[in-house]
Design a protein that fits this description.
It is elongated and about 65 Å long. It has about 425 residues and is α/β, with parallel strands linked by helices. α1 runs parallel beside α7 and α6 packs parallel to α7. It binds uridine-diphosphate-2(N-acetylglucosaminyl) butyric acid.
């Protein structure tokens, strides 16, 4: 049974107020869970968001034979000493793109892994060629057999450390090869590595367990291979910068004042910079952002051009909420999505709500504002567009129905309850 959200729009009025805390980062949590395969003995992870994707990843770990104990709503103890399988289940793997990161630790530990082509959001073609070429450089072979990849080293021996230049700066490729390098023979150097804060988090977590890593957060990461790691103490997952950025945009559009707590503004510089240029009044502290004195007039924000980019540029995961923001800004904004080729398709739904958005090509749209939005029935095509629709529905006049709430649940914990505390009317129905 699919849940829906019934959303009562605020007709452009900025009525929400209060404080909202940011949860643990989905895209860090999933990798930390996967990397427990590189540890001997138990690993305790705290501040994991209670979201669908985290549940899916723990299910895959259980299926591989790990002991997965839930210690609390946001806390798990995982022990992979009992792992007895190196095959990622066909259905589980197809449901989530992030399942691909399991290949790094599984291959490194067992010398072999099989998996389906990973599924996930429909936001572009999402090939895995760079993972496969990375593994080949480390001495592995890849076969495609009966709908599954089999990746293995000769005689299931250790991977070989290697120097790998990645044609693109990609987050999951960097993370996967870094994990693989932790148990490889000798040193690996990852060049043109992605620099997202989630990668630094992963490297810090691995280093705390004894891995020898340098350069994480820069385009060149080195890792000296060794044995299984040991977690000396519990690890708390970093705050989700994408959730924080989404709340900021919601606050700018629909709140009289809003305090966003438990976040790291230092991870959001590109976003804060653009919102400030556009006229959003913000006070920034070390772990919180406060929107106050928000101008209640429609069109008080200025149009700005946005180009998504690898970190520290503007994150593609905030592109959809940003487009909603720009529908309410005065003037013409050009939005250039440079990472994924299918990630602007959702804009057609915003147009049906009354937005003035022209698609130039699959990577670029022109948004003209401000335009009032009307409530509508909407399908969320992916996690981020799903949340953008929720923001649009709150800004709009009238009621909206959001189908495929599943996508929103994949990335945001109990969002309707947290927004209700700010005064939003979002009801979950079956
Ligand atoms: N690419 C290739 N070959 C590969 C791998 C990637 O051509 O082997 C291309 C992709 O097609 C894409 C580009 O490289 O055009 C960048 O992809 P990247 O690998 O950086 O994306 P990802 O690692 O698959 C992660 C996040 C995404 C986020 C991007 C960009 C996870 C689980 N996913 O994806 O998050 O959009 O980085 O920051 O960490 C989301 O959370 O909603 C989400 C989609």
């Amino acid at each position: 049974m699919k849940d829906k959200f019934l959303v009562r729009g605020l007709s452009g009025k900025k009525k929400l107020k209060g404080s909202i805390a940011v949860g643990g980062a989905k895209n860090a949590a999933l990798k930390l869970l996967a990397t427990t395969i590189l540890f001997k003995g138990p690993v305790v992870l705290n501040n994991l968001p209670d979201i669908e994707d985290v549940r899916r990843m723990t299910e895959i770990l259980s299926d591989l034979g790990a002991s997965v104990e839930r210690l609390g709503k946001h806390s798990y103890r995982i022990n992979t000493d009992t792992l007895n399988k190196n095959e990622v289940d066909q259905n589980m793997g197809r449901r989530m793109r992030a399942s691909i990161v399991l290949t790094g630790p599984l291959l490194a530990r067992f010398g072999e892994v099989t998996l389906p082509h990973p599924g996930g959001d429909v936001i572009g073609s999402r090939p895995i060629d760079l993972f496969l070429s990375g593994f080949k450089s480390m001495g592995a072979s890849v076969e495609w057999r009966g709908e599954r990849y089999r990746i293995h080293t000769p005689k299931k021996k250790k991977l070989r450390g290697a120097s790998i230049f990645s044609a693109l700066q990609t987050v999951t490729v960097t993370e996967t090869l870094l994990m693989a390098g932790v148990l490889a023979e000798g040193k690996s150097v990852l060049k043109n590595a992605a620099m997202e804060p989630e990668i630094k988090e992963l490297a810090d977590f691995l280093s705390a367990g004894g891995a020898k890593i340098s350069g994480a957060g820069t385009p060149t990461i080195s890792v000296e291979g060794g044995g299984l790691l040991k977690a000396e103490k519990a690890w708390s997952v970093m705050p989700d910068r994408i959730e924080a950025g989404s709340f900021l945009i919601l606050g700018a559009l629909a709140a009289e004042n809003l305090e966003i707590t438990d976040c790291l503004p230092e991870h959001l510089e590109s976003v804060l910079n653009l919102l400030r240029l556009s006229g959003v009044p913000m006070k920034i502290k070390k772990n919180s952002i406060f929107i106050s004195g928000n101008d209640s007039r429609v069109g008080s924000f200025q149009a700005i051009n946005v180009k998504t980019h690898e970190y520290p540029g503007f994150p593609t995961d905030l592109q959809a909420p940003m487009v909603v923001f720009l529908t309410q800004a005065k003037g013409e904004s050009l939005v250039f999505e440079t990472i994924f080729e299918g990630r602007l398709a959702y804009t057609a739904d915003l147009v049906s709500m009354g937005a003035d958005i022209k698609m130039w090509d699959p990577h670029r749209v022109m948004v003209k504002g401000p335009t009032p939005l009307r409530g509508r029935e909407l399908e969320g095509p992916d996690i981020r567009a799903g949340l953008a629709f929720l923001i649009a529905a709150l800004v709009a006049k009238g009621e909206s129905v959001l189908n495929s709430v599943y996508h929103i649940d994949r990335g945001y914990e109990s969002i309707e309850k947290r927004l209700a505390l700010l005064g939003a009317k979002v009801e979950r129905v079956r």
